[in-house]
Amino acid sequence: xxxxxxxxxxxxxxxxxxxxxxxxxxxxxxxxxxxxxxxxxxxxxxxxxxxxxxxxxxxxxxxxxxxxxxxxxxxx
Length: 76
Hints:
Blueprint: E1 6-11, E2 16-24, E3 29-30, H1 33-39, H2 47-50, H3 52-63, H4 71-74
Antiparallel strand pairs: 1-2, 2-3
């Protein structure tokens, strides 16, 4: 499965590329081609289990929840 957070962009706000480059919407930045290979399931890895960028963001989101006001956070 291709990562739903990976896009290919051929420009930034101030620059245009000859070839589209991999952009991670979770990290909000362009990523190295090797990272895109992983995200494109070249190695049969799932982004929600193997991508350190995705896992770090998910961990940050979980740790930032207000457990008193978020029943989902309270249930772990």
